[in-house]
Amino acid sequence: MLVGRRVLLWLAGVESFTAQKAVARVQQVTxxxxxxxxxxxxxxxxxxxxxxxALREWRTVFLMAVALAAGLAxxxxxxxxxPRDVNIIVGGWLVGAAVMASAALLLLSLIHxxxxxxxx
Length: 120
What we know:
The protein is mainly alpha-helical.
């Protein structure tokens, strides 16, 4: 009960309320929750039949999400020209996603072409 009260006081913040402190608190809580989910997923991926595959999937899905979230939070806190920096990050992310989706479509189309069609 005492731990819960301390957590609630930490989440609420006992300092005077300002918008910047509120945004920083929300970012801290968000990163903390994301880190807890990643740790939970790591614990679940250790005791499996194929641990190497599970750890690779954990690294790809969960660890990269934490890295992206931490990078975005750091950019939001340290940016001098925030709209320009956000536009660069989002633009780079969208270009990367478009390139990866195009590569996947190309590979899938080549696989489909190389396999003979089977009448069912």
